[in-house]
# Entry
Amino acid sequence: MNYFQYQNQALYCEEASVEQIAREVGTPLYLYSHRTLRQHFRVFSEAFAEVPHIICFAVKSCSNTAILRIFAREGGGVDLVSGGELYRALKAGVDPSKMVYSGVGKREDEIDLALRAGILMFNVESFQELETIDARAGVLGLRAGIGLRVNPDVDPGTHAHISTGLKENKFGINVEGSLLAYRHAAKLKNVDIKGVSCHIGSQVTKMAPFIDALGRLKELIRRLREEGIAIHYLDLGGGLGITYNQETPPHPSEYARAIIDASGEMDCTFIFEPGRVIVGNAGILVTRVLYTKENEGKRFAIVDAGMNDLVRPGMYGSFHQIQPVIQRGQEEITMDVVGPICESGDFLAKGRRMPAVERGELLAVMSAGAYGFSMSSNYNSRPRIPEILARDDRWYVIRKRENCEDLVRGEEIPDFLNT
Ligand code: LLP
# Structure
């Protein structure tokens, strides 16, 4: 069910009018549907109902504490990649015993925070990291739950920048190397081996790469168990794709069916780290057309949201559907939808066939809930935009718009420049 729908030619998020929200909070803004977020989480989790599992939402995809709270209340955990994400998750009330911590570059202070919080496990990405976690746990007098992030060397068939499970990628430890690392971990004083993890990439739209990776992890778990190394958690990462345009990714229920069938009797609790599939289609970016112009036959709509607000088109060439907030039955034309930033990479759409737009008109950039606000920046000294959560016919500011003071917070002009 899609909760971004037109009623009398006007776009609504649930029962809240997008135009009215834009009028009251100004543009640009991110707008999420509470019902969609909750439903996507439930559909994903219920798809795995027949096996023990924890859904560890990938915080990086959408990090607002109000949104993390929604999933925490549904019984979810989180996948973290920094001390900052840990802070957010704790603030949102996520249970630390449902937190996993991934990432190739965990700092000692971040490791300490996670140890003190009592997270379920570190997904360890190198031998040196393993040693560091053991040492820090020793210093703090705590136990560290660990799993190794295995690089299964499968091609997820996705954009090169977001594929992570190939041997040339920086992520994880290869299968043979991880056997050695597990044997080493078994001898360390302060770590408890808990699981095995992998994450092969993002926006994956086929089942085969997931099943290939699962096969390799299963074999590794078998070998570990033969050696007396107990494995209780199997973390298959995130990565399930969504429909931005014409993609036809497996539905979460298909994804779950195939994984459950291929795993057989694993005697493990499954962990999943979905991000995009939960939040991607639960959020939109609302922007206003500042100007339109034509250069030698090429038409542009210049809008008030830029690549600092939504970097995906400029960074990956990603497609996001763009729709008028109020449908006026305009004829379709071809144009570029561009932002105000001084970079040619600052566009939301290129050569797009869409209804002609006018100055002042509102546009909705669809499927912007994942890696939208969370990748936004202050580039060109643009205050970051607000995040709004709609629930039924009401809406809530879950992050207010930044102002110019926010932009210079923490900056200082040294004394020698004052004389
Ligand atoms: N787990 C780990 C260890 C990850 O690195 C990621 C994403 C996820 C889970 C969640 O993946 P998802 O279910 O959302 O596909 N900025 C890019 C995507 C980068 C993904 C990074 N890792 C984009 O906008 O497409």
In short: Residues 58, 61, 79, 102, 162, 199, 202-203, 237-240, 273-277, 312, 316, 370-371, 375 surround LLP (CB under 6 Å).
